[in-house]
Write a structure and sequence with these properties.
It is built from one helix and ten strands; from the N terminus they run E-E-E-E-H-E-E-E-E-E-E. By secondary structure, it is mainly beta. The strands form three sheets. Strands 4-3-9-7-8 form a five-stranded mixed β-sheet, with helices on one face. The structure holds FE2/S2 (inorganic) cluster.
Amino acid sequence: MRIEDHPILGRAERGRRITLTVDGNPVVAFEGEPIAAALLAGGHRVFRYTAKRREPRGLFCALGRCTDCVMTVDGQPNVRTCVTPARDGMIVQTQVGRGKWGGRGGGGKRKG
Ligand code: FES
């Protein structure tokens, strides 16, 4: 679900229709909208799993402050999807723990 016509802000202007790949599946987005907005519109609720207890997290503050929405985007972990604009062809992955450069993995403990 997307807000089409806000009572205070008015009609939403949208970029062109694009496609993201989220955990291997296509998700429709509009260029420039936050990645998290496209995910919510597509029914995604879990964006990451916590490092210690592997608990699910999703959108919380939607302001770029809490980090509950971080995901691995184009191989870069810890991207705040609520404030990162969508671009065509982005590869987005659910993050596990602290994430890992280049992929989905990530552990709860650091070595060394
Ligand atoms: S939801 Fe809090 S930083 Fe994105």
